[in-house]
Fold this sequence. Notes:
Blueprint: H1 2-17, H2 21-36, H3 39-43, E1 46-49, H4 60-69, E2 72-79, E3 87-93, E4 100-102, E5 108-110, E6 116-118, E7 125-128, E8 132-134, E9 139-140, H5 146-151, E10 159-163, E11 169-170, E12 184-186, E13 191-192
Parallel strand pairs: 1-2, 1-7, 7-10, 8-11, 10-12
Antiparallel strand pairs: 2-3, 3-6, 4-5, 8-9, 12-13
Amino acid sequence: MGNSKELLRKKALEARNFIEYEEVARRSSVIVKTLITLKEFIESRFIMCYVDFRKEVVTRGIIKECLSTGKRIAVPLIEPGTGARKSIAACEIMDIEAELAKGCYGILEPVKDSARRVPPEDLDMVIVPGVAFDLKKNRIGYGGGYYDRFLKNTRFNCVKVGLAFEAQIVAEIPACENDVPMDIIITEERIIK
Length: 193
């Protein structure tokens, strides 16, 4: 199964990297508009959202929407774990410009010294990045297992949303017991529920 996941990851990253930056911005805008009109988003009071990196679906609009409408918003902070396994912590932010700096892997994350960590069970929704998704709402990430481990600690009714470009949707992802499926996947063309 590991080899097939690696192959799917490689192909999906190639497909995403082929998209021009202007097109990434345009498609991201469509995805964000779809997300913020979802009943599940509107009803969520505390949301965790990844900060986009490279050619991921751009999420700054989601974070700014939360801040401007009074929703609480958290972003991930990568922390050292036991052994070589790092983990992510949810950290609440109030200002996207002032509170984030380049951290692990060059991804913007809360400044460690002033990070306001929040328990995963406080979150109503987690917006998750991914390399590939399938129609059963399975996900392939970058291979570290950070989000799968994190999502296992959220409440049973926490809504897990994957954002992806249509080119990242594949026929089938081989899932194992450690994988946490999404509840909703949003692309520029559809909502998969």
